[in-house]
Design brief:
Layout (H helix, E strand, L loop, with lengths): L1 E2 L8 E6 L2 E6 L10 H13 L6 E6 L19 H17 L3 E6 L2 E3 L1 H8 L2 E5 L3 E3 L10 H7 L5 H10 L3 E2 H7 L4 E3 L4 H12 L4 H14 L7 H15 L1
Parallel strand pairs: 3-4, 4-5, 5-7, 6-8, 7-10
Antiparallel strand pairs: 1-2, 2-3, 8-9
Helix pairs in contact: 1-2, 3-4
Length: about 240
Amino acid sequence: MQNSPTTPSPSISYSLDAGIGHLRLNRPLAGNRVDLPMLTAMTEVLRDQEGQAGVLIITAAGDDFCLGRERAEQGTPLPPFDAFRPVAGFYRALSEFPGLTIAAVHGRAAGFGVGMAIRADVCLASEEANFTLDEIPHGIPPMFVLSELVDHLHPKHLMEMVMTGRTVPASEACSMGLVSRLVAPEDLSAAVLDMARSLAGPKATLIRECKRYMRGIRAVPTAGRLDVALSEQTLYAVGR
């Protein structure tokens, strides 16, 4: 097993084995709430592992996936821009990670935890998991999560979930598009690892190509997408 070249926060662990990276939140007594050192360490892992991990799994220790950011830090005297910039940096690193990212969600995911789950390429969730956007009840507009959710949820689902802060069970989250697939609690770890193993190795290059293409094609008007597809498919075939 090969370790990450970074020095992670004690609140996370990271390992790399056979092209599969495993980033684990390890602050279970705090519901894996993400504080600034933890956020910085996770961002460094994502940046350092670009090109190293073809598939990256995000899991968490304890009963819950992640209950959001550490609220005790939100009263610090940092200017708002400086306080929020690390959050944007992590989300950008996760969204831009060239390999496939898989979030394995169990227990509760709230706020920032939902943000991680939705920005991962694939989200496998335990049947007992649930999802909550609790920012509005706490008097905070969830700008970072909304910036991604608008591309995933029907506006009616999005508005109701965000404005009420209602806890959404895993089955409903899957039907809404927050989750890729539900798994029995006892099978979650094995299902995630099986998926990672099936997509690591030789398929890693295809994954990177598909992710790069998908990011770009979203910005192309519908009428021009076939022309872009023809060009990209030809360039890939020639370059192989």
